[in-house]
Design goal:
Pathway: Phospholipid metabolism; Lipid metabolism; phospholipid metabolism
Distance between the termini: 24 Å
Number of helices: 16
Subcellular location: Endoplasmic reticulum membrane
Family: Belongs to the membrane-bound acyltransferase family.
Membrane topology: Multi-pass membrane protein
Keywords: Acyltransferase, Endoplasmic reticulum, Membrane, Transferase, Transmembrane, Transmembrane helix
Order of helices and strands: HHHHHHEHEHHHHHHHHH
Oligomer: single chain
Shape: globular
Strand content: under 5%
Largest sheet: 2 strands, antiparallel
Structural class: mainly alpha
Radius of gyration: 23 Å
Length: about 400
């Protein structure tokens, strides 16, 4: 954004470990946070600056400021201030050093709206919190670890993963909405709408800073850069791959930028497997993380092959029915994978999955085999989304 006047208190830091994460099995345990990702991202931004400077020296002339490029290499104190920045220190979201710098150098911070965007973002959080408390009380996770649970009939065991994943989603919705609201209250991550900012990455279009408070106040701003969860997209998108994009969005950008693109493979599915493996390691060493995350590539391959082989052959009505079935199976796949994510141990996870006959693994393997037999192509990261990207009316999407 440019400018030189710093937001009051913006350089204050907490004397806590950067991006402290709750630990243990507390119901509000939110797993890892993007603290380590900050320094990886900063190293990449510094490298981009050095490459741009070398090109500038080789060409013999100076170019204008490039989109997202740092003005200079941060000092040690600036690096520490970024790492320990109080905005997001508890639950994220991930943000680049460029985003942090734009916040500090916002020329007219008083013109950036915060109260109305904060209220618009915060309003569903109390409802989600109540739904979490209710669902976790009625369907406690600890029941799955008891022998009596496995005496229940198969339909009851299958159903139980649905409210467990529902409670899991509500918990994260509340935490991430609260984290976003913390950023919004500080005016952090605000860019003009014209900059078309992306979650995690920031602006995708060059947007000159306003030259006066009046011009700054006349601009329309958004906080897409620090948007970490799209609750509507998570619940109503059709495909497994799209569900990943709407969840922990700033960290998904980081994973795509620094892990997926550097994966030692060309296949979308293999690159996704590599990304999921490192994401599981980032979460911790519990086997349940690895079992869950490494089920995702199988689901991606299955849905990509079968969709490529069959959906295009259907009538518009048939495609609509396909999307509903696909959405239902996508949600059940995430229900199933969530059990490994919350049960954590190898024994508990495999015991539950075995009690439902590894149904998602079996179904995905069958779908993959059928897609291959029918000549379906593999999923591609650049492939455009199907016409029905979600199933709920657009008016239900939260602001």
């Amino acid at each position: 954004m440019g400018g030189s006047s710093c937001r009051p208190g913006a350089h204050l830091v907490h004397l806590w470990p950067p991006h402290f994460a709750f630990s243990g099995h507390h119901p509000w345990n939110l797993g890892p946070h993007p603290g380590p990702a900050l320094l990886v991202s900063l190293a990449s931004e510094v490298q981009d600056l050095h490459l741009a400077q070398r090109k500038e020296m080789a060409s013999g002339f100076s170019k204008g400021p490039s989109l997202g490029l740092l003005p200079d290499v941060p000092s040690l104190m600036e690096t520490l201030s970024y790492s320990y920045c109080y905005v997001g220190i508890m639950t994220g979201p991930f943000f680049r050093y460029r985003t942090y710098l734009d916040w500090l150098e916002q020329p007219f911070p008083g013109a950036v709206p915060s109260l109305r965007p904060l209220l618009r973002r915060a309003w569903p959080a109390p409802l989600f919190g109540l739904l979490f408390l209710l669902s976790s009380h009625l369907f406690p996770l600890e029941a799955v670890r008891e022998d009596a649970f496995y005496a229940r009939p198969l339909p009851a065991r299958l159903f139980y993963m649905v409210p467990v994943f529902f409670a899991f989603r509500m918990r994260f919705y509340v935490a991430w909405i609260a984290a976003e609201c913390g950023c919004i209250a500080a005016g952090f991550g605000a860019y003009p709408v014209a900059a078309k900012a992306r979650a995690g990455g920031g602006p995708t279009l060059q947007c000159p800073p306003p030259s006066s408070p009046e011009k700054a106040a006349s601009l329309e701003y958004d906080y897409e850069t620090i948007r970490n969860i799209d609750c509507y997209g998570t619940d109503f998108c059709v495909r497994v791959r799209d569900g990943m994009r709407y969840w922990n969005m700033t960290v998904q950008w980081w994973l795509a930028q620094y892990i997926y693109k550097s994966a030692p493979a060309r296949s979308y599915v293999l690159r996704s497997a590599w990304t999921m493996l490192l994401s599981a390691y980032w979460h911790g060493l519990h086997p349940g993380y690895y079992l869950s995350f490494l089920t995702i590539p199988l689901c991606l391959a299955a849905e990509g092959r079968l969709e490529s082989a069959l959906r295009g052959r259907l009538s518009p009505g048939g495609q609509k029915a396909w999307d509903w079935v696909h959405w239902f199976l996508k949600m059940r796949a995430y229900d199933y994978m969530c059990m490994g994510f919350v049960l954590l141990s190898l024994g508990d996870t495999l015991r539950y999955w075995a009690s439902v006959y590894f149904c998602v693994h079996v179904l995905a393997a069958v779908a993959l085999g059928l897609g291959l037999a029918l000549g379906g192509g593999g999923p591609s990261r650049r492939k455009t989304a199907p016409p029905a990207a979600s199933l709920a009316p657009e008016k239900l999407r939260e602001e």
